[in-house]
Amino acid sequence: MSSAIPPVKRDTAPSSSRRPLQAAFESLPAPTWVADLDGRYLHVSQAYAGLLGRQATDCPGLTLEEVLPLALGRLTMQRHRQLLESRGRKRFEQIWTVKGEPRWFEVHMSCLCDDAGAPMAVCGHIQDMTQHVERQETARRTQNELELRVAQRTRQLSATNEELEAFSYSVSHDLRAPVRQIGGFAELLQRQLGGQLASGHAEYLRHILDSTHRMDRLIGDLLQLARINRGDLRKVPVDLAALAREVLAGLAGHEPQRRVETALPGSAIADCDAGLMRIALDNLLGNAWKFTGRQERAHIEFGSLARDTATIYFVRDNGAGFALETAGRLFGAFQRFHRESDFPGTGVGLATVRRIISRHGGRIWAESAPGRGATFYFTLEASN
Ligand SMILES: Nc1ncnc2c1ncn2[C@@H]1O[C@H](COP(=O)(O)OP(=O)(O)OP(=O)(O)O)[C@@H](O)[C@H]1O
Ligand SMILES: [Mg+2]
Fold this sequence. Notes:
Bound molecules: adenosine-5'-triphosphate, magnesium ion
Low-confidence stretches: 1-15
Pfam families: HATPase_c (PF02518), HisKA (PF00512), PAS_4 (PF08448)
InterPro entries: BphY/WalK/GraS-like, HATPase_C_sf, HATPase_dom, His_kinase_dom, HisK_dim/P_dom, HisK_dim/P_sf, PAS, PAS-like_dom_sf
CATH class of the largest domain: Alpha Beta
GO biological process, one term: osmosensory signaling via phosphorelay pathway
Largest sheet: 5 strands, antiparallel
CATH topology of the largest domain: Heat Shock Protein 90
Distance between the termini: 62 Å
Shape: elongated
CATH architecture of the largest domain: 2-Layer Sandwich
GO molecular function, one term: phosphorelay response regulator activity
Protein name: histidine kinase
Structural class: alpha+beta
């Protein structure tokens, strides 16, 4: 390669104008060099020479390949030539072994041109990125370990959960047969002995029957709760308003004597599992129906509100309500805030609803006050 600047030989005595420049260069804190068109060092900082185990004053006049370790020298020289051709600048990363330790460097090289735009030298500097890379590596390792641990715990937890669910499912399932047998035989006794029983004994029998019916209902609810997490979630567009209308018609069919005003939109299409949402609305509207039982003018409303990108659905009633602050785990199983004699129930309904909503990725919450009715809100997809 021809050179516009004559190569500076090692033994060339520095001119008086070079000395301050060379001295300034040597004192630069960053590893820095300038090389001529042939790739011979013109100036190097002591920080640069130190990386190579040399003195800054030794380098001027030597070529990049003579000073740098073999492969690195060849590579740097290649880049040096490319830069002279492109007259551009380059940034690349390089691992370099310094005193037996691998170090990460970011190398910046750029072509220096004269006033006419002709290349006259290449200057470069190096940034030691080792600490930064090591910190990143440590953070990455910690993050990986954390993710691994979380995944492990999640696997353990879901295995335990599945075991518990399978256990409660089979316990509930196996309890059903003996409970039904007790109920069946008690009914037989009632039918066959009927009038022959003393009034106290007939009373005992009625208690046995009531309790077995209640237990049967409870087992049914528990089985339904356990089933919610089984099976696939089949999301399709569902008209929740039509579903709510059907549920309310069913409730009115069972208690035709009750007068309940209802308010529903023409339609409310949501992407959800129709079967599961039917169970959720059965429970929410069932509660609204039950807890307005003592209201002279019962009012039940189903509707939706648009909030940012999410849709919030709600079921509102003007019934007995409850004190939110004492409602604790409102959506936990067997949590009830009214006396059984006032409003019967097993306390599994809202736990079932919450599971259904969670399976859809949504959330559920309530607003209520004693004697002021209750509103249950829910979404069907995760919102940010
Ligand atoms: N709309 C409502 N108005 C007033 N209280 C309510 C309403 N919905 C729920 N609650 C309170 O929350 C409790 C839990 O409701 P949940 O539906 O889980 O049980 P439940 O209705 O008592 O029994 P079931 O298992 O038969 O549904 C109720 O017992 C009641 O105290
Ligand atoms: Mg209920």
